[in-house]
Design a protein that fits this description.
3-stranded antiparallel β-sheet, alpha+beta, about 450 residues, 5-stranded mixed β-sheet, Cytochrome p450, binds protoporphyrin IX containing FE
Length: about 450
């Protein structure tokens, strides 16, 4: 039984007493998809909605999620809205592939993300964490949201390309960031698009970006191909270039390698930087928990980490990250469309319906969680990988399309936070609450400044 008495209740948008009127719901879901839910959503297992002729369903129960994301996953595809926004950034990479093409790509990529291979990437995470904390020697007032974005990009670019040049990393990073805050922001046309190319007039900025972005990633890959063979490269690009389909022996083409690299940059940096931000924010709300983590890290300092198993010395840090992923899941909503009519938990769901699985709602569901709005890392004690349990915890998705980078992300986040907390205490400078805002990921409502001060040794 969890004891709520001294628990922190971190900020969340207000829950509405009943359904919002149609237009408020529509614009609300573009502005902040976390602020549209009526109170009853946190009690029910299934709900349906029709908005301006578009049918949607919320699947809000572990059994229903298992049905659509595992048992009958082959019947569900990503709706047109997603490739409209993401194709310019990630091309034909695994995230947007479907059916047999997806199976082929996933088979080729999976061996590169085993714990053994993630262990090989640890030096890249350690180098990125060292870059992160170096800046705190010069300044004690820091925009941690921006710092984590830079650090997570740094970690993924180092892991992919062993890219030591800060200038090169900034160039690629700035391109991605400008896309996400510019042409890549979801628009009203995306919600109503019947196909990837509908409302073509709204896609010009995205196409122009795609040309520049693909040329930039192609140039990095080409430089590596042209380099004299260096057997010391120990990064994801090496693994992707060497990957072979276990059935056919086939390799990834140059365009495919480019698209997979772009996919990993996008999928890996935005999500992990949000996890780092929200975990840090929670620790400012609960200084006792922050102190406990610092003690744990002192007993096994990050400089001693050489293998993935070493991260097992920080069990409390893992619990805090798992709880941060529950309260602020970086991917707050996943959407699918059934290719054929289906029945989910006894409810008929017609072909083309937009089916939502919302970790934001399911992670705060009153039937599945004790004290769902409270920050209580202990709820995960004894459950080191709860996302594999097929329950109500889905920060990495579920079924065959579950996040390929979960081990990568958690290892990176553990190393970043341990390196920071080993040396510094963190607190927000203002008491103004930071509200979560649901877009593609969960953003902070504003970028709070953090006081980062030397921890007493
Ligand atoms: C805290 C960090 C992360 C979170 C919360 C996260 C979450 C997710 C979720 C929820 C999905 C499934 C989306 C869906 O089914 O619609 C997903 C898929 C994916 N993620 Fe992650 N992710 C994280 C980090 C990473 C990293 C570090 C990488 C790679 C370096 C990565 C690569 C991918 C890829 C390639 C897919 C698509 C898999 C497929 O469709 O087969 N992710 N992620």
């Amino acid at each position: 039984m969890l004891n709520k008495a001294s628990s922190v209740i971190p900020p969340a948008p207000p829950v509405h007493p009943k359904d919002l009127p149609a237009l408020r719901f529509l614009f609300g879901s573009i502005r902040n998809s976390l602020a549209i839910w009526p109170d009853y959503s946190f009690d029910i297992a299934f709900n349906r909605h029709t908005l301006f002729g578009v049918e949607s369903a919320l699947v809000n129960d572990p059994g229903g999620v298992r049905h659509m994301m595992t048992t009958n996953a082959a019947n569900y595809v990503r709706p047109a809205m997603l490739p409209r926004i993401l194709r310019p950034l990630i091309g034909k990479g695994v995230f947007l592939a479907e059916a047999s093409e997806w199976r082929r790509q996933r088979r080729l990529l999976s061996p590169s993300f085993t714990p053994h291979h993630v262990s090989i990437l640890l030096p890249h995470f350690i180098a990125a964490a060292a870059d992160l904390v170096r800046q705190f020697e010069r300044q004690s007032s820091v925009d941690l949201s921006a710092a984590y974005q830079t650090a997570a990009l740094n970690a993924v670019l180092r892991s992919l390309f062993s890219m030591p040049s800060q200038e090169e990393r900034d160039r690629l990073g700035n391109l991605v960031r400008r896309y996400m805050t510019g042409p890549g922001r979801p628009q009203i046309f995306d919600a109503f698009a019947a196909s990837e190319t509908s409302f073509a007039f709204a896609l010009g900025g995205r196409r122009a970006f795609q040309k520049r972005w693909f040329a930039a990633v192609d140039a990095v890959v080409a430089a590596r191909r042209g380099a004299t063979h260096d057997t010391n490269h120990r990064d994801l690009l090496d693994l992707l270039m060497a990957a072979r389909d276990p059935d056919t022996g086939e390799q990834l083409s140059a365009d495919e390698i480019r698209d997979q690299c772009a996919t990993m940059i996008f999928a890996g940096f935005e999500t992990t930087s949000r996890l780092l931000f929200w975990a840090s924010y929670l620790l400012t709300l609960d200084p006792g928990e922050q102190a406990r983590l610092r003690d744990e890290i002192a007993s096994f300092p990050p400089e001693r980490v050489t293998t993935l198993d070493d991260l097992g010395h920080w069990p409390r840090l893992r619990l805090v990250l798992l709880e941060a992923l529950r309260l602020y899941p970086p991917v707050p909503i996943m959407i699918r469309e059934p290719v054929e009519d289906d029945v989910i938990m006894g409810e008929p769901v017609r072909r083309g319906t937009q089916v939502y699985v919302a970790p934001w709602v399911l992670h705060r569901h009153r039937k599945h969680w004790q004290h769902p709005t409270a920050f209580m890392p202990d709820r995960f004690a004894g459950k080191p990988s709860p996302w594999t349990a097929g329950g109500a915890y889905l920060p990495f998705g579920a079924g065959p399309r579950i996040c390929i980078g979960a081990v990568f992300a958690l290892a990176e986040a553990q190393i970043m936070l341990a390196t920071l907390l080993q040396r510094y205490t963190i607190a927000t400078e203002s008491k103004r609450p930071v509200m979560p805002v649901g877009r593609l990921t969960i953003l902070p409502s504003y970028a709070p400044m953090f006081r980062v001060e030397r921890a007493p040794s």
